[in-house]
Design brief:
two-stranded antiparallel ribbon, single chain, binds S-adenosylmethionine, alpha+beta
Length: about 90
Amino acid sequence: MSGTAGLATFAGACDDDGWVSVRHGSDHVERHHVRRWLRDADPVDLDLVGVCDGPTLDVGCGPGRLTVALAQQGTPALGIDICAEAVTRTRML
Ligand SMILES: C[S@@+](CC[C@H](N)C(=O)[O-])C[C@H]1O[C@@H](n2cnc3c(N)ncnc32)[C@H](O)[C@@H]1O
């Protein structure tokens, strides 16, 4: 999955039941649930957020959960994303 095809798949998964399949080569497929990216930051995410000690640009922020975690720790943060569905969900937070 790449380019606009990948974006369309992500957008569709946001609207449907949330599952996407990512194929690596011919025989390895990973299944991911998009709603994972709608949850609050988990301990691993917070480790990453914790090393951001200056104004941070969250490129590919999705619905913005890491951007929110950055703001909650007092780090100025701006999230950007090219997926309209992700941006719409950010505005619902
Ligand atoms: C796997 S999701 C992760 C979302 C978020 N970072 C998180 O951890 O919850 C990847 C995000 O990257 C965005 N994305 C992909 N290519 C991008 C690009 N070129 N510029 C900005 N965002 C992009 C997708 O729209 C999607 O929302």
